[in-house]
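Quick look at the format.
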Amino acid sequence: MQDQLEFGYWTIRGIGQPLRYLLEYVEIPYTQKNFNIIESEWFDSVAKPPLNQEVLANLPYIKDGDKWIFESQALYIYIAYRANRADLLGSTNEEQVVVEQVKGVLLDLYRAFRSLIALPEVDYLAKKDEYFNTEVLWIIEKLNKFIQGKTWATGNNLTYVDFFQFELEQTLEAYKPGILDQFQNLRKHHDAFAEIPQIKRFISSERFIAQPFYPIKRWRWW
């Protein structure tokens, strides 16, 4: 039996959630080490051995035996290789380029939405709709148009960006219930991904973190 990986992240969904989906999908044995974001556990851990010897120490991380891997984008690659599923990075050179393009759009969407949620408290209620319509909506529209006619985010093959895209679709639907019904290509992608057996089991399990999505007190915090 393979040694279990340890996946470490905050007790939120955030950028860690798509990685949890990916670990579940490839069925590598792993345990979760969830750090309470309002306590000092992570900062205490990183201040002492062995993490204080790791220059890049950060959340999320994967611990594989004596090996530590940090940074979310690197973790996607590590999980795919560890599971002997390099196809999840793109099966051809051309597909790998498309994966990177879609990842760039998804990162733009993630950052725009995170900035919306992090608007100063004094401005949030007054500005949130305008910000969504000017800074977030156009990225959703572009993504919806791009995936038209595709089975998955980049074409006919499932790749790691589908896991990231699904989490963003979940986030948008939680923020504006029913919004995916306005973007049928995203709705189709979301619903198909949710039916993947490993994902379906995970979402219905006790290990699944339903909320918070972000470490922002005003929305889906605790």
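Next, a different chain entirely:
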Amino acid sequence: MKTEIVPASQIARALEVLQRGGIVAFPTDTVYGLGALAFNNAAIESIYTAKDRPLEKAIPILIGDLSDLDKVGFDIPDMALRLAARFMPGPLTCVIPKKPTLPRAVSATSTVAVRIPNHPDALALLRAAGPMAVTSANTSGAPNPLTARDVYDQLNGRIPLILDGGKTPGGIPSTLVDCTGEKPVILREGPITLENLISALE
């Protein structure tokens, strides 16, 4: 497979690849992500193959707009909707009940992690493509890719397309919060603190 690097503005080219069941690397507000359409099980499985990622690891869903939450979530708790409205786009990932039609390759459990990245190129792609299953565009355990070249160096020959949007900011991953109970439970610390979450819910 030949890996092509094109400017991040070439959304139509990325859509061609995604709609054929391919996977695409693109910049986000942390590192470069590697994504497939969220409802294409075979495409999501090819992310695992490209990355040498263990199949038991769930893959988060990125969306381009709050209105897309209903496409991937089921019976979404009010708490999740309020936190999403306050902190998305941004460094918050909410775990919510999963829509039953989402492929098992996304998550083998009844929940799914969802985020809206605060990056113009990522948002442009997600708003055009719809929800995508996305993880970091590196081989499993390798350094996180901050540039299109970093992605190419690790995944050349394994993926068809990289959208080059320049260097990404890196930084710490988003705060991961379980929104399925009565109160928010932080599963991974990040830029948004528990105090921030509680304050937003008051």
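The first helix runs from residue 11 to 19.

See the schema section for token definitions.
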